[in-house]
Amino acid sequence: MIPRTVPGQVQVDDVDRAILELLREDARRTLTDIAQRVNLSAAPVKRRIDRLERSGVIAGYTVEIDHTRLGPSVEAFTELRFTGTTDVEEIVAAAARLPEVHEVYTTAGDPDALVHVRVDGVEHLQRVINQLRHSGSVIGTKTLMVLGTWKRPS
User: Fold this and answer.
1) Following CA atoms 58, 61, 67, 73 in sequence, which dihedral angle do they give, to the nearest 10 degrees?
2) Which of 11, 13, 38, 67 could bridge across to 73 with cysteines, CB 3.0–4.6 Å?
3) Is residue 132 within 8 Å of 112, Cβ to Cβ?
4) Is 35 part of a structural domain of the chain?
5) How far apart are CA 49 and CA 58, in angstroms?
6) What is the DSSP string of 111-135?
7) What is the CB neighbour count within 10 angstroms for residue 104?
8) Tens-digit pLDDT profile for the chain (154 aa)?
9) DSSP readout, the chain?
10) CA–CA dist 41, 101 (Å, integer)
11) Does 71 lie in the same domain as 138?
12) 43 within domain boundaries
């Protein structure tokens, strides 16, 4: 059977996948460390990482921040409902212009979007929700405050 590929899909092998997993665990890992773990020298590992970056498989590198260490912080998810004729771009734009918004997930069904916000307190959260409610075609919201988080370990 010939494997089917999706247009725009990048072909990766098991070594590429191992490199990606190592970088996902620690993006600051050295080429030498990665090379030792995948049984290659540093030069081919560098070429593979460069190729994965050029092809967009590696879209960037980031830092994970513990916001609770920076001061008072409230996280919440707000469901947004829009009129039926609202374009997806308008849905994202309604939330993305607020600095308190960290992520916007457009969804199929009800609600139309799920917005992840981080604020200084409940009063600040109320102001952000009011801004979301008054942005364009929003016809309803529902907000869930985050009490704790869990992430699947690497």
Assistant:
1) -50
2) 67
3) no
4) yes
5) 8
6) SSEEEEEEESSHHHHHHHHHHHHTS
7) 19
8) 455 556 678 899 999 999 999 998 899 999 999 999 999 999 999 999 999 999 999 999 888 877 777 776 899 999 999 988 888 888 888 888 999 999 999 998 889 999 999 999 999 999 999 999 988 789 999 999 999 888 776 5
9) -PPP--TTPPP--HHHHHHHHHHHH-TT--HHHHHHHHTS-HHHHHHHHHHHHHTTSS--------GGGGS--EEEEEEEEE-TT--HHHHHHHHHTSTTEEEEEE-SSSSSEEEEEEESSHHHHHHHHHHHHTSTTEEEEEEEE---------
10) 42
11) yes
12) yes
Q: Residue written as tokens 């072909």? A: 11
CATH code where residue 36 lies: 1.10.10.10
With respect to residue 41, please indicate whether it lies within any of the assigned structural domains: yes
Contact 98, 128 (CB under 8 A): yes
154 inside domain? no
In the numeric block, the tokens 């996948």 are attached to: 17
**Boundary (domain end) residue, out of 22, 54, 86:** 54
